[in-house]
Amino acid sequence: MANISKSVKLGVFTLAIMNVTAVVSLRGLPAEAEYGLSSAFYYLFAAIVFLIPTSLVAAELAAMFQDKQGGVFRWVGEAYGKKFGFLAIFLQWVESTIWYPTVLTFGAVALAFTGTSDAHDMALASNRYYSLAVVLLIYWLATFISLKGMGWVGKVAKAGGMIGTIIPAGLLMVLAVIYLASGGQSQMNFDGSFFPDFSNFDNLVLASSIFLFYAGMEMGGIHVKDMENPAKNYPKAVFIGAAITVIIFVLGTFALGIIIPEKDINLTQSLLVGFDNYFKYVHASWLSPVIAVALAFGVLAGVLTWVAGPSKGIFAVGKAGYLPPFFQKTNANGVQKNILLVQGLAVTLLSLLFVVMPSVQSFYQILSQLTVLLYLIMYLLMFSGAIYLRYNMKKVPRPFRIGSKGNGLMWLIGGLGFCGSLLAFVLSFIPPSQIAVGSNTVWFAVLIIGCIVVVAAPFMIYASRKPSWVDKNTQFEPFHWEVQATTAQTPAPEQHKETDEMEHGQKPL
Known about the structure:
Order of helices and strands: HHHHHHHHHHHHHHHHHHH
CATH superfamily: Amino acid/polyamine transporter I
CATH architecture: Up-down Bundle
CATH topology: Amino acid/polyamine transporter I
CATH class: Mainly Alpha
Shape: globular
Strand content: under 5%
Low-confidence stretches: 1-7, 492-509
Distance between the termini: 28 Å
Largest sheet: none
Helix content: 55-70%
């Protein structure tokens, strides 16, 4: 998003809608529609223990370090040192890289439903080779555009968000109301229990993926200083945005469950099938290809915006000496070309899993679960780090603060977010009973090995740093414990000591 002038202040509702636009995606609705009425419980539960804590904690951290680079690298690094700060931002980047094939799979399915034959469209949407081709074609096209410079992408993203998310969500709800009001029979049992069947433990697995639906709200924390009276107005924006988000998810999920029987729900196709069924009911089948294109446009506009996004964060940190010079190269437009190319190769390799997994749906689910796991590790670091900094940096000004006095409210909010993230992390390892994921051995192997490799990689890179990796033109502010150590001319606290030769005799980065 473009920088906002200091003289222009964001209103409460404006920031609330910005948060909604950044978080809401309709592609995940079918996953929760399988739970019927109890899906509302999952949405509300995840909002209380994850969405709201993420927004508030990120706002405090962003306000604390508003004049310093690094984002989550800064937040976690101030608490636990550079190694874990680098781990956090590395996870954020890799998570987004793994996310691309899953979101583009949804885009490929949407494009498949632009045909005139239902049977042909569904067969094409289920074809893994078609999905692979579309994912790779669109991703590399987005990468190519990113390398050319993306000053115009902001307008495309706004249009895509409105045309591909907000309008379809509203339309889906209106169609459900028309369907029921005119005598249509609901496929969802609204007489069921609001609370899920906790005795069937593996049924909770798909629900754990709902945390990723809400992920990304921490990005809104950067705007905490762009509001009048943020201590009062920012929480209002958070709660309004959270309420709108939950309403869209709950009513959108119900709208799908009303028109599609639970046994026929498919994670990648059901949103399009739901629209198609509603349009047939109101004798407007000609709208099916239109909504399919709109949804695909929303997905593609989002991916176009994000292809270069998370990579910018790790690029800035890399120039401070955390990545080899190869990853610091830019093209004539100042775009981090080598990071984008490596990211593209990773997306390509992940997409090739299409030909290994038993179905497009199983591929979609296992990559979604791995994405959740990696992102949740970052959130665990963020929540615990925020609590730790209340004691380790107690005198640092907090323009936005959770609780006017003491640390009790931070313990409650941060602890709730930490425990919610930990619960979702554990549940994400369990294979879902609703989806054929093939061998459980493959499921566990991909998730466990994937987590180990991704978590180990930044520590290995960190241990391999060399003085030549530092870009001398980069000014990266030192951490507070480095400043204290320099001022006192004493070693930094034990947990923050850096023993490698890279920083020996040099000014801290």
